Amino acid sequence: MMCKHLDVQEKIAQEVREVTGLNNNSSADEVAANLTEEALNKMQYLHAALNETLRLYPTVSMNARICFSDDTWLDGDSVKKGQLVIYQPYSMGRMKFIWGDDAEEFRPERWIDENGNFQEEIPFKFLAFNASPGICL
Fold it and tell me: What sections of the protein cross the membrane (predicted)?
């Protein structure tokens, strides 16, 4: 996605330079030495761009779960114990009623709040990791 959106690629490169103190002439070894966990945690726009990529291109395009007990969902639909519920993160990442009219656009800024900080989405809205990293295990 970054190659298709050079403006996003440049914003990420600028953020990396700002956070690490590196410049365009830095060697690969210098970049590797300065890309610490602390530095990565400061890269808000990079995080947003990665989440936006996973929203549009999740690692699992379709998934299923078996219902372990009878339940009624918020919309009034009910499922019975043993029923298979299938959902599609790929399609859900493009639904306008979930993400807005620009749902099909690659726009990392949707993940950035008014202060320029990365903003998490509701876990069951952003399904790249199901509800969270590790819940799929």
Answer: none
Tell me which of 129 and 89 has the higher pLDDT.
89
Q: What is the pLDDT of residues 52-102, one digit of tens each?
A: 999 999 988 898 989 999 999 888 999 999 999 998 999 999 999 999 999
Contacts of 95 (CB under 8 A, 6+ apart): 103
Say what the pTM is.
Answer: 0.84
Q: Report the relative pairing of strands 128-131 and 71-72 from DSSP bridges.
A: unpaired
Output the six-digit token pair for 14. 């600028």
Quote the Cα angle for 27-14-122, to 5°: 120
- d(CA 106, CA 10) in angstroms, rounded, equals 15
pLDDT over 90 (residue 44): yes
The Cα-based distances of 3 to 8, 10, 31, 53 in angstroms read 9, 10, 20, 12
3-state SS of the chain: helix, strand, coil percent to 5?
Answer: 40, 15, 50
From the list 98, 135, 73, 106, the residue with the least C-alpha distance to 7 is 106
| CA terminus-to-terminus distance, the chain | 28
